[in-house]
Amino acid sequence: MDDGDGLGRRLGRALERVPWWGAAMLGVLCVAVGLVLLVRPFRSLTVLLVVVAIAAAVMGVTAVAEAGRSPRRWVGLAVGGLWLVLAVVILAVPAPSLGLLSVLVGAALVVEGAVSITGALRERSDARVAAVLQGVAGIVFGVLALVWPDVTLLVVAVVFGAKTVLFGCSTFLAAVRRARGKPAPERSRKRARWVRTSGAALSLLLAVALALVSAAVHRGEPSVTAFYTPPSGVPDRPGQLLRSESFDRDVPAGAVGWRILYTTTRDDGRPAVASGIVLAPRGGQGARPVVAWAHGTTGVDSTCAPSLLKRPFAAGALPALDGIVKAGWALVATDYVGLGTEGPHPYLIGQGEARSVLDAVRAARQLDAVDLSDKTVVWGHSQGGHAALWAGQIAASYAPDVPLVGVAALAPASDLTALVSNLNTVPGGAIFASYVFAGYRDHYPDVTAGEYLRPAARVLVREWEDRCLAEPEVFVSIASSLMIDKPIFSRSPVAGAFGTRLQENTPRGRIPVPVLIAQGETDQLVLPAVQRAYAEAACAVGNQVDYRTYPGLDHTGVVGDGSPLLPQLLTWTADRFQGRSAPTTCPSRS
Questions:
Q1: CA dihedral 280, 283, 288, 290 (to 10 degrees)
Q2: How far apart are CA 224 and CA 63, in angstroms?
Q3: Predicted structure pTM score
Q4: What are the pLDDT digits (tens) for 503-559?
Q5: DSSP, res 365
Q6: Contact status, residue 265 vs residue 355, Cβ threshold 8 Å
Q7: Tally of CB atoms within 10 A around 114
Q8: What is the C-alpha to C-alpha distance for residues 569 and 311, in angstroms, rounded to an integer?
Q9: Nearest Cα to 354, choosing from 419, 280, 407?
Q10: Are 512 and 396 contacting, i.e. CB atoms less than 8 angstroms apart?
Q11: Whether residue 216 has pLDDT greater than 80
């Protein structure tokens, strides 16, 4: 029988028995494989799994080979065997996923770290300190791998890629030295020990730094409080105020705020509960006209409600808040169903969003501390623009007691087919695509992950769904989304059932009140040409549309500070409350 020393030496000498040109080719191949991981870690699931398996096998063989020259042979053999087993499991498991890869690698790192620490504590070699430091770093990296699955994939790809590139370079250089007949240079034991210990210390520092960042990010996450849990005996009638409390976070000077919980209905008519914020200027000046605000995308998780976030109004891109207060108007801002309250959230699902908007106004009228008039103008940006257009379509039939006098849709998601088709060309667009998919998957049984999502993207989509755009965690989503060079969809999302549902939720109906559509001309998310076509189609069905464009402004810039839209929006809204005639860019009908 061969002991560990003999096995290690035989593996360690394996490359020496390969012709120099064969070793050089192996080195070049390893460099190429490593670069694939470093540059395109998510190019395809199959490539990622195969390359990681190869890298794990290389690490395993290297660890076993080095065990023959180490006083801690059993540790090296255990670590090497672990990586070799991981390589076999990755390739052997049928239909593997990135989530499985994350779990396997995370568990392997934890076990490797524990084995290294245990072995080091039982030995008295000069490598003891380095082994302990490296083991602790491995455990921390492993835990982080299990906590951050999508980041793990990126880190795993980079770590394995770097290790494979370094192995390939050293193999190639050794082969070149052999071809020249020059022996490898000798390094002193002291220098090798110092390098080994320094590298282990740096690894541990990096692991601890990442752990601290992870803890800080998770500590900053919003959490749903008891306020959002509906009381027992919730009435079926929509628009009923269930609960209210004072709200002062980011409320401008001269205004007073309340957080509200109220009844509404889902897109299929089932009763639901939603939350929101109501603001009004201080002091009594009679019944106040209402701006019903439909916020832009904040996320689809229940923690993404604007009323939960640190900056509730900025999170959903509300423009001209001070202008609303100075004008003496009240603001009623829904969170929508599923944000704050029990989900799912009807992301870009017209009826579900619009009902939340209209029922928030109904509920706000029941507050004793503020007097609201019947006159209401709906404002909405992006996702909220989509909700505002739908509110304009259904108000007369769904909420005739909320008479609208105008709808302002700012960079609205008006054509959903065009929007979703464009997302794979927008930096970070995969995150918005994941939100759309999540909303439709949760509301429509005929839209499934198996039919529309690439296997490699499923764990990413699941992680992105849980993060809000206004919170630090979103940078993790952005980082992983930028590494993807393919859409998250395995087939076109505008085909089949998904495409049919997108068409159903595109607001093509009649809006009986004046409509303002504002569009930035450099918007990459909602394309100006698509918006113009929508405005023309809205005119064609008889809507009174005022379509305005703004040169040099993008999707958020059109509602940002300094945008020329803001004073125009306030003036346009004041005219609607005063009953003045509304301008239109629709061609006259003679």
A1: -10
A2: 47
A3: 0.78
A4: 999 999 999 999 999 999 999 999 999 999 999 999 999 999 999 999 999 999 999
A5: T
A6: yes
A7: 15
A8: 22
A9: 407
A10: yes
A11: no
